[in-house]
Amino acid sequence: DADVTQTPRNRITKTGKRIMLECSQTKGHDRMYWYRQDPGLGLRLIYYSFDVKDINKGEISDGYSVSRQAQAKFSLSLESAIPNQTALYFCATSDGDRNTEAFFGQGTRLTVV
Amino acid sequence: EDQVTQSPEALRLQEGESSSLNCSYTVSGLRGLFWYRQDPGKGPEFLFTLYSAGEEKEKERLKATLTKKESFLHITAPKPEDSATYLCAVALSGGSYIPTFGRGTSLIVHP
After folding, report:
1. Yes or no, beta carbons of B91 and A96 under 8 Å apart
2. H or E stretch covering A37
């Protein structure tokens, strides 16, 4: 089983719909992240969480919200999806105490029509 | 202005033709520089971490090096299976060690 699991893997939704992307991890890490990847733009940070009670906006948080339901679960919501939110979304985790590398999920490909 | 710049954006090599990818950063307080490999439609896969200037890491045909302002990923005698996008990320002490990524270098190795 993957250490970082994202669901769904693919999703097509209509403009204006609310959608939630889910992420769970078995690494036991305290830190979790949501990134968005667009062609030519690399990975951009949407939100990050250092623990269940510590959630912070990243560089492109407008139009998104998150919930850290438990140490192992971090979900991303699009309250009212719009076409320019069509992208590949990645969840990642890291061990903040050790400042080591981040581990990524397999991604969710979201298309807003 | 990007804090992390990767070059070139794309690179095509013949099998066996060695080359280097560059990752330069314009910030201070570096607490770690990470290299990842990403295959199409998949999540980035960790390759190396470098923490201080002069440090080097190797794995098969890949070797990563770090100076005070940039890192290089050297690919020796590449094979077609090395084709992927290579991502560089930095963790900064002023940024709570959150990984900040460059835009990546897309590498294609022709047989």
Report:
1. no
2. strand A31-38
